[in-house]
Amino acid sequence: MIKKTLWGLMTLSAILVALYALVILFAPSIRPTFVQNLFAHFPKVTAIHFFGGAVAIVTGAIQFNASLRRKHLPLHKILGRFYVVSILSAGIASFILAVNSVGGIYVQSGFGLMAICWLATTINAYCLIRRSDVSGHERWMTRSYAVTLAGVTLRLYLGLSVVLEIKFIDAYPVLAWICWIPNLIIAELVIRFKANKRRLINERALPESC
Fold first, then answer.
1. Are 7 and 142 in contact (CB under 8 A)?
2. According to DSSP H, which parts of the chain are helical?
3. Predicted structure pTM score
4. What single-letter DSSP state applies at residue 30?
5. Domain-by-domain residue ranges, the chain?
6. How far, rounded to the nearest angstrom, does the alpha carbon of residue 110 sit from its chain's CA centroid?
7. Tens of pLDDT along the chain (210 residues)?
């Protein structure tokens, strides 16, 4: 029950962020000033970033539904391809936007490293499943989606900074790092928890098999 609730909240958050990205993409009149500047200087790259990110965050959330994976494996594989391709495009676009950011070295390095981690974790996850390493694929896909969820956490922290009346120019260099690094730390804790759980189950089952 807890897993389903957490998955539901994650998926709902992903859908809301994806809808926001698509609205921003197709409704120029309501774009925030910061986003307007991105489209003004890097129109194609920014569009790829928003669209690819929207596809990745929704398809990725669906992939973590264990029931769907078991019952509809072909659909899981198709969505997985969409996820990988969307991150390859959005990740490269993110890196280009990061290194050209006007927020300074802290923003550029924070978002730049995030883009590199996003691409690296996803490519590694894809390579592992191509070698039929399912457990390794699951671990690296967990890390990949942790970075993808920066789209959610960034907006949560932005909202919090507004509530705390912190100026955007002061908050942004910090947000460039905390929107994704804590996500990866949580992902590692989840991965280790699952590994320990499997180990305990195997140890308990061993005497019975003997």
1. no
2. 2-26, 33-41, 43-63, 66-71, 73-99, 105-130, 134-148, 150-163, 168-178, 181-209
3. 0.91
4. G
5. 2-209
6. 15
7. 788 888 999 999 999 999 999 999 999 999 988 899 999 999 999 999 999 999 999 999 999 988 888 888 999 999 999 999 999 999 999 999 999 988 889 999 999 999 999 999 999 999 999 999 999 999 999 999 999 999 999 999 999 999 999 998 899 999 999 999 999 999 999 999 988 888 888 777 765 544
